[in-house]
Each structure stands twice: as structure tokens, then as C-alpha cells.
Amino acid sequence: MIAVVFYKLRHNQEGVSVVEFAMIAPLLCMMLLGMFDMTYNMYANQMLHGAVQEAARDSTLEGATETALDAAVTASVHDVVGGAEMTFNRKAYASFSAIAQEEHYTDINNDGRCNDGEPFEDANRNGIWDPDQGEAGNGGARDAVLYEVTIRYPRTLPIAPFIGISPFYETTATTVLRNQPFDGQVDRATTGNCV
């Protein structure tokens, strides 16, 4: 009699689905939360890029102010991500080819560095040699402007501690624009030699 009961109990499959689901449910939930988190972050990233591109178009108009442009980008992003921290960065250059380039100098001692009183072209007029010749701000007429916006916000779904990622999401959008020729371009360099 006991052998029959153990045999029936061992071959009984009632409730197996519940046990299998209980084993798979945590992994399934984690995957769904991860997918939702990734999708939300992608949407926020696209909103940021769209807002930056629109601000770039608006900034090329005469009379555009940095404050108004930043406020427009902030409003667009905050429509999607209410508590996002935003950082704005602008650098103006004399031309597109000057973006992220060092200031030119004459390497008299051939050591590959600007030092020992070697002459250099102070493109951003700050009095020191810089590895990036950009000047902070929106620049003037005909300037190429590198506009960069970074947003950082806490993840919307509580998945970060479970999979070992940062509880914050951060992304950056960058665009380069050319200011309209509403005036003559300012000569940035304070020194220079032409051959």
C-alpha cells in the first residue's frame, strides 16, 4: 500500500506548471524590466538629440541667446524625464576644421610640446597655450560652435541593483553648427605668422 502511494506521488504532475513558473518568473520579470528600462532610456536619448538639433537650428539665427536655447532644450527633455540634471557646454571656433584642435605653436626645441617660451597662436585669447583652441560660449558671426548637452537622471525602474549597473542613466548629445553671417567674423588670434 505504501509503495503504491509513493509511486502515485512520484508520478503525479499536478502543480508542475506552477513550480516551473515560479522558477522562471524572476528571470522573466528581470528581462522585462531591463527591456522597459532600455526602451525608456532610448526614448529619452532621442528626445535629447532632437531638442539639441532644434536648438542648433535656432541658434544660427541672429539674436538667439544661450539662455533661451538652453531653456528650450530643458523644457523638451523635462517633458519626458522630469527630474533630469542637465549640463550645457559650448565652444566657439573660427572654422569647422579648428574644432577640437590644439592652438598652433612653433616647436623650436623639437620636443613635441609647447614650452620654454615658444611662440604660439592664442586662438581663444586666454593668454595661455591650450590643447583645444575653442573659446567658451556661443561665439559670434560665422563661428563654428560645438554644442554639447548631457542629461543624467535616476533609472525609472528598480533594476540597477539586481544586475550590477549604475542607478543613474547618463547620455550626451553633441552637434556642430555655423552661426549666420549677420556681421563680420571676429579675428580670434592675438598673434600669428603667415609665410
Outline the structure in words.
- It is built from four helices and four strands.
- The protein is α+β, with helices and mostly antiparallel strands.
- It has one domain.
- The chain has a four-stranded antiparallel sheet with strand order 2-1-3-4, covered by helices on one side.
- The protein starts with a helix and ends in a 17-residue tail after the last strand.
- The model has no long low-confidence stretch (mean pLDDT about 85).
Quick structural summary:
By secondary structure, the protein is of the alpha+beta class. It has helices spanning 2-11, 16-59, 66-80, 160-163; strands spanning 85-93, 135-136, 144-154, 168-178. It has one domain (20-178).
